[in-house]
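Notebook entry, structure prediction.
Reason for the run: the old model in the group folder had no record of what sequence produced it. Starting over properly, with the input documented here first.
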Amino acid sequence: MDKPKTKNQSSAIFIVGVFVAAVVLMFIAKMQSHNIQTIKIPLNNGIASLSTYNNLLVAASNDNKAYIFDWADLSKKFSEHRIESGDVVIAPTGLIVSVKRANPDYLVVSGLDANSESKKIPLMLAAHSAHLSSNASGSKIILLLEREGKNGDEHVSYGILEVLPDIGQAQLINSIISEKCRLEHFAVSDDGNHIIAVGEKNEHGWMLLADTKEKKVAWQKELPDLKKLFKCAFSKNGDIIYLRGSDNFLTLAKTSSGEIIDRWSLPKEGTYTYRTQYAQSIAVSNDGELVAAVIGTAIFIWDTKTYKKYDITGAGQKVLSSMVFSPDGKLIATSDMRQSGDIKIVHTH
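New structure, fully documented this time:
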């Protein structure tokens, strides 16, 4: 026969119950206070990337579709467009540019009108992979073509091209030959004068800065304390580079030299074991006053003037693929790369 519970045991159970209930209520209140909204996209194979152009939120899926939303009213029906890959840019003239990631030999350009005819821009350089990015407005579109050496050559070459969709051209800016490295991500400064590429080289974090005006490589650097760099972004004025690597920090470097000037810490708690969770995204608001990074299911936001940091729990994704600010910096969107992955929208204040 079970012994009857003592008064002290009952009191302890009651206190634990009250504490658990309070924690749950606090979590719910925190979620509600940030007004987290989920956008479901039917029959998609996961979201590869998010981007913002003017008042548009663009979600590129892994099954080569672009879903375009209006930031002013996210409840409105989205438009859907066929693309070549998760790399997609919208030019100021309303043209959608995408490129095949594997064995690329052309870019595809189409209009926002679903009935517009697609056009191909042939690429003169043979490459086994490609990465497409632009500055915030889409006025400077850069294509990075990666070409491996032949017959076991340990070198790799990159072609940096500027895409001019209105006239159907991709012009070579520069060619780079480097020791073999793995490119993970690259970003374009707001003024379009620089690109930063990051990845892994010699089992170290690696980054390269190219000057698009001078058409040359400004510097290359390895970071021995990091195994890999996954994501990069420029500050609004372009003088700082934000980096996310295989650690729990948001690293800041000088654009002029690559010198590390600061590291903003992220907590280790809540880190997922999925490999993709280490490829955490970075987002910078249009005015440059906010910088966001994600770890686990929490978004961490810094005020770049006061360095104050705060977090939004529950706004991240189990398998995060991308994150962007709305044009006014009041909202953040995050995407999930899993099959039928959704988009979460959260208020930053």
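Summary: The longest strand covers residues 169-179.
The old model has been moved to the deprecated folder.
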